[in-house]
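Hi support team,

I've been running sequence recovery on a batch of backbones for a student project. Most finish fine, but this one hangs at about 90% for roughly twenty minutes before it completes. I'm not sure whether the input is malformed or the queue is just slow. I've pasted the structure tokens below so you can try to reproduce it. Let me know if you need the job ID as well.

Thanks,
M.K.
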């Protein structure tokens, strides 16, 4: 039987965690809501297509039809699901090989929802321009690398098998339905942040947090960050940058993570997050795991490790001017 003292302590922990989750979520929503509305306005007035114009020449560098610039532009501004609606419309008229779909899917995974995600990263203390260049540059370079590899060796040149057809996507929703879907999304983000915070509190109280850190310590050593960043990095990898960044926003208030850890963790998380969801979605579009998982994960891990090592050697004034905020 639980004692009254235990129940009181448990209730206090839950209440404290709830208040922290509310505070963290509100800070997150202040960033997300205006940007979500702004992107929706761009979609309503069909303005995103103008963002695709400068991307058309880039598509030739990665072996994709010029029309796919609109797909990537939509992905950059919004979530995958809006871009998928555009992709399914275009792919009906323009057949794509498995290699081409894999290249596009990999670029979509690396650089998407940038207005929201980069603003969150900025709120966590990092410089937005550097992270923007990192996301877009990595997406483009990875696409070029995959294009060179697949075309040189003649791999995945069969026509892509697209399984995701006839789905109800965000573009099919009325304005009221869209609003309700976003409210539900924000509610789910709050609930997940709350339960994740409870889970982390449980891990800390029971000592399991040390086990998580030991399991993740090889990756943290490769990335050049401390074990303190391991838990939020795992959460970001599995669930997404909004959830991982939400916890990091909470951690930055307590000073538990150094600027170096935040930089390494969020940079890696920006290039690799919500792996399970993204892999399933992109596989349904006809992408191959060789690009969307193995090559991307290996390359981005190596890239972030090199970046963190290089940043450590920079003078503090350079770091505070270009990498993170003072």
């Amino acid at each position: 039987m639980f004692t009254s003292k235990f129940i009181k302590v448990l209730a206090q922990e839950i209440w404290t965690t709830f208040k922290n989750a509310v505070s963290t979520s509100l800070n997150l929503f202040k960033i997300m809501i205006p940007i979500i509305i702004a992107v929706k306005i761009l979609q309503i007035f069909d303005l995103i297509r103008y963002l695709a114009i400068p991307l058309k020449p880039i598509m030739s560098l990665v072996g994709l039809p010029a029309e796919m610039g609109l797909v990537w532009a939509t992905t950059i501004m919004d979530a995958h699901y809006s871009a998928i609606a555009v992709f399914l419309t275009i792919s009906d008229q323009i057949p794509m090989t498995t290699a081409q779909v894999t290249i596009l899917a990999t670029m979509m995974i690396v650089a998407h929802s940038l207005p929201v995600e980069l603003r969150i990263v900025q709120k966590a203390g990092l410089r937005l321009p550097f992270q923007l260049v990192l996301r877009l540059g990595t997406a483009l370079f990875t696409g070029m690398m995959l294009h060179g590899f697949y075309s040189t060796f003649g791999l995945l040149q069969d026509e892509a098998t697209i399984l995701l057809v006839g789905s109800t996507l965000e573009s099919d929703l009325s304005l009221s339905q869209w609003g309700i879907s976003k409210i539900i999304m924000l509610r789910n983000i709050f609930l997940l942040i709350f339960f994740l915070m409870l889970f982390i509190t449980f891990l800390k109280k029971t000592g399991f947090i040390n086990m998580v850190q030991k399991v993740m310590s090889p990756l943290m050593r490769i990335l050049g960050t401390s074990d303190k960043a391991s838990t939020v990095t795992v959460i970001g990898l599995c669930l997404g940058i909004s959830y991982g960044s939400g916890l990091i926003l909470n951690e930055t208030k307590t000073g538990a993570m150094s600027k170096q850890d935040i930089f390494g963790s969020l940079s890696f998380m920006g290039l690799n997050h919500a792996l399970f969801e993204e892999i399933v979605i992109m596989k349904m579009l006809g992408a191959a795991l060789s690009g969307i998982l193995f090559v991307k994960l290996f390359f981005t891990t190596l890239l972030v490790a090199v970046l963190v090592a290089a940043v450590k050697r920079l003078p503090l004034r350079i770091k505070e001017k270009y990498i993170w905020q003072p």
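--
Follow-up from support: It reproduced on our side and the slowdown came from queue contention, not your input. Residues 4-323 form one domain. No action needed from you.
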